[in-house]
Amino acid sequence: MLIDSHAHIQLNQFNKDRDAVIERAHEAGVTTILIIGFDLETSLGAVELADNHENLFATVGMHPHDAKKLTPDVLNTFRELLNHPKVIALGEIGLDYYRNLSPPDIQKDAFEKQLDIAEEFEMPIIVHNRDAYMDILPILESRQGQIQGVLHCFTGDVELMQRSVEIGFHIGIGGIVTYPNAKEMQVVASKVPSDRLLIETDCPWLAPQFRRGKRNEPSYVRAVAEKIAELRNTSIETIGEITSNNFRSLFATD
Ligand code: NI
User: Fold this and answer.
1) How far is the CA of 6 from the centre of ligand 1 (A)?
2) Ligand 1 center to residue 36 CA distance, Å?
3) Three-state SS for 172?
4) Ligand 1 centre from 202 Cα, in Å?
5) From the CA of 7, how far away is ligand 1's center (Å)?
6) Distance between Cα 235 and ligand 1 center (Å)
7) How far is the CA of 229 from the centre of ligand 1 (A)?
8) What is the value of pTM for the model shown?
9) CA of 199 relative to ligand 1 center, distance in Å
10) In angstroms, what is the span from residue 35 Cα to ligand 1's centroid?
């Protein structure tokens, strides 16, 4: 049993074969898929899809790239969507200083506003980070005990992983761990505490090595689980079990 904790199958890239993609995930043992919104349109798309499929769940949120689009109206829509039974987290939200598509101050403001909502609704968060740990971790530390979530597509070193775990966060490991040159990532994946590990695809992006450069999809989360099992000297069944348990306890989907 495997859970893809981060997928974007509401996007156009899946318009032609979305049902087949969901079916392939089932056949690969992927029992649950969390569909992640990153702006208003993709959040609405995630909720609609989750609404129509038993084993799909959704998140809503404004990505740092589009932080300037987080108007009061959009915030209100997110609040309404958070009451939907299939919406189980806020995200992806965070900071991105690599592409800097919104100015850092506006990114921080949008992040804080959405953290306030997450606290108010007692919802976990999906955190997007790129080159911004120096700002993200202090913000999360300042709310330690108030907020839980996952640092998705984690690419930091062991020290940052340990700091993130100490403040109560889970670590999402994706396809990058399967790349031969991702040595540091592999060390991190071998050391994440068992009760904080999650697996993800971030599809359609970041396909694992055997499909690198092609469109990614939830069934490929199996390759991520296999690689982590190898790194931790355990079986894929064990990785499936611990990551699925972690998912259900973090997102309260039982
Ligand atoms: Ni994503």
Assistant:
1) 6
2) 7
3) strand
4) 5
5) 7
6) 27
7) 23
8) 0.97
9) 13
10) 9
49 Cα–ligand 1 center, Å: 16
Q: Which residues of the chain have pLDDT under 50?
A: none
Per the CB < 8 A criterion, the answer to whether 58 and 25 are in contact is: no
- Nearest 10 degrees: CA dihedral of 217, 37, 51, 5? 50
Within 42-196, strands assigned E span: 56-60, 87-96, 125-130, 149-151, 169-173
Ligand 1 mean position to 172 CA, how many Å? 11
Ligand 1 centre to CA of 144 (Å) is 24
Query: What pLDDT does residue 202 have?
Result: 98
pLDDT for residue 92: 97
DSSP-based three-state secondary structure for 52: helix
> How far apart are alpha carbons 111 and 108 in whole angstroms?
5
- Reading the block at residue 141, the tokens are 């530390």
The per-residue b/e assignment along 188-226, b for 16 or more CB within 10 angstroms, e otherwise, is: bbeebeeebbbbbbbbbebbbeeeeeeebbbbbbbbbbe
Residue at token pair 């032609």: 16
The encoded tokens of residue 144 equal: 């330690």
Share of the chain above pLDDT 90, in %: 98
C-beta separation of 58 from 88 below 8 A: yes
Cα(first)–Cα(last) distance of the chain, in Å? 15
